[in-house]
């Protein structure tokens, strides 16, 4: 009864992100009520393993009392402090320092945002400021990858390549350029890692030369493309692309909004690739989704150029909720949990997840299995030889999502027959085994 009235209220008043409004009105909302560990429970009492950690963000898992305590303590003591006027709060300063200590290379300067989109947006503004400070404002063109996702702010949505974020908006992004992704399963260069790297390097060089290196500001990349379908580049790919950036004096922005905070194993995925970008953007796992927060990591070189360029003038970029003390207090506690067993557990659980997904390769629908750590996907096809995608007209993703839900599993069903996995790092062995068993059952029902 309560649930029905909620569905009506939702239909009437709540606008959902990235949804068909009319489609959603018809389907009605599914309301989650509570969660613990890796298990979520809906309003009807139906329990599921959350194989997607909310929206790839609840890395620590649900129900950590110590996180709740950290937030409550901070709210009691000081619920808000601005960072404007050279003011600050202790948790924000401490979190910035802890993050800088753990960041790759000289990414020593942290700018806090409310999430990932405004973190990406902030980098665009900082990069413009950087080149103005250097006296080369004509470096104003940006490159990113097809299948890439970098948020849906007005500027960042341009770096995003997914068509749904552009259709119907008509915003001009003629200063943003896309190059093909590494997408190994469907790469015209074949599946050989070295061929994929060589092809990406050639394409990036050609794009920079086409625009003119003197106009290219930055290259944006997710170390593993998430929303594009969990596309994992070959080892050495990111490093090779970084070399091209250095050769042409182009800044590299590593968007670690999904890959950060243990999702792929280490705290940051760049470390696996031995790459120190000029900027790193993060959010999600930073606070494990308990409260909103994002962070831009900026290198010494960029920070000093901007600071010297501005001199005594204020740099006009900031939000009321930049460096929010409650979010920062949560971030500090989440970081402590990561380093007190969660990262380690995530590595073990990730190996089990990948092995489990590999075991699904014998299923007639499973064309590809890919991932790293607790970030993975399977790609479904109707013909393995020809790699024929599932027929789009039947809306397979929605049906698969619904079946998985009924089977006690939340997954991400991308529109192109790709199923995404990003479970909390706290998953037990039996959680992981349940994810695999419930996936197999769901696939059997889809045949
Ligand atoms: N960048 C990447 C790589 C993302 O995956 C996302 C969100 O999924 C964003 C940016 C945007 O983050 P947010 O949704 O917190 O604004």
Overview of this structure, please?
Keywords: Aminotransferase, Pyridoxal phosphate, Transferase. The chain is about 40% helix and about 15% strand. It has about 450 residues and is α/β, with parallel strands linked by helices. The strands form three sheets. It has a seven-stranded mixed sheet, with helices on both faces. Strands 11, 12, 13, 15 and 16 form a five-stranded antiparallel sheet that branches. The chain has a four-stranded mixed sheet with strand order 1-2-3-14. Helix 12 (about 325-360) crosses helix 14 (about 430-445). The two termini are about 35 Å apart. Pyridoxal-5'-phosphate binds near residues 150, 222, 227, 255 and 258.
Short description:
This is Aminotransferase. The chain is an alpha/beta fold and 447 residues long.
């Amino acid at each position: 009864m309560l649930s029905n009235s909620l569905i009506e209220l939702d239909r009437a008043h709540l606008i959902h992100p990235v949804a068909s409004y009319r489609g959603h009105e018809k389907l009605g909302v599914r309301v989650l009520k509570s969660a613990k560990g890796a298990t979520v429970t809906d309003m009807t009492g139906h329990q599921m393993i959350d194989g997607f950690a909310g929206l790839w963000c609840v890395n620590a898992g649900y129900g950590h009392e110590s996180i709740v305590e950290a937030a409550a303590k901070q709210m009691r003591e000081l619920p808000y402090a601005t960072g404007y006027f050279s003011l600050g709060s202790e948790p924000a300063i401490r979190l910035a320092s802890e993050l800088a200590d753990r960041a790759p290379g000289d990414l020593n300067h942290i700018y806090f945002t409310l999430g990932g989109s405004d973190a990406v947006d902030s980098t665009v503004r900082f990069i413009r400021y950087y080149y103005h400070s250097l006296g080369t404002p004509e470096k104003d063109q940006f490159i990113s990858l097809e299948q890439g996702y970098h948020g849906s702010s007005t500027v960042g949505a341009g770096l995003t390549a997914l068509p749904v974020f552009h259709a119907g908006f008509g915003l001009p992004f003629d200063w943003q350029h896309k190059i093909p992704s590494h997408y190994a399963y469907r790469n015209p260069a074949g599946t050989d890692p070295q061929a994929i790297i060589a092809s990406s390097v050639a394409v990036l060089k050609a794009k920079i030369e086409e625009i003119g290196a003197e106009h290219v500001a930055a290259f944006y990349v997710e170390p593993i493309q998430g929303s594009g379908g969990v596309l994992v580049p070959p080892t050495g790919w990111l490093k090779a692309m970084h070399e091209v950036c250095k050769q042409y004096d182009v800044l590299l922005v590593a968007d670690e909004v999904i890959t950060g905070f243990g999702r792929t194993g280490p705290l940051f995925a760049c470390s696996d690739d031995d790459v120190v970008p000029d900027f790193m953007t993060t959010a999600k796992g930073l606070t494990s989704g308990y409260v909103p927060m994002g962070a831009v990591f900026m290198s010494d070189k960029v920070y000093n150029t901007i600071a010297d360029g501005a001199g005594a003038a204020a740099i006009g970029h900031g939000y009321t909720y930049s460096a929010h003390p409650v979010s920062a207090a949560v971030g500090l506690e989440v970081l402590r949990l990561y380093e007190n067993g969660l990262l380690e557990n995530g590595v073990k659980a990730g190996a089990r997840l990948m092995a489990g997904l590999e075991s699904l390769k014998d299923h007639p629908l499973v064309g590809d299995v890919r991932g790293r750590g607790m970030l993975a996907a399977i790609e479904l096809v109707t013909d393995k030889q020809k790699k024929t995608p599932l027929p789009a007209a039947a809306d397979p993703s929605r049906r698969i999502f619904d079946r998985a839900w009924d089977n006690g599993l939340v997954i991400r069903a991308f529109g192109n027959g790709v199923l995404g996995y990003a479970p909390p790092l706290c998953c037990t062995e039996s959680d992981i085994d349940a994810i695999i068993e419930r996936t197999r059952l769901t696939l059997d029902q889809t045949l």
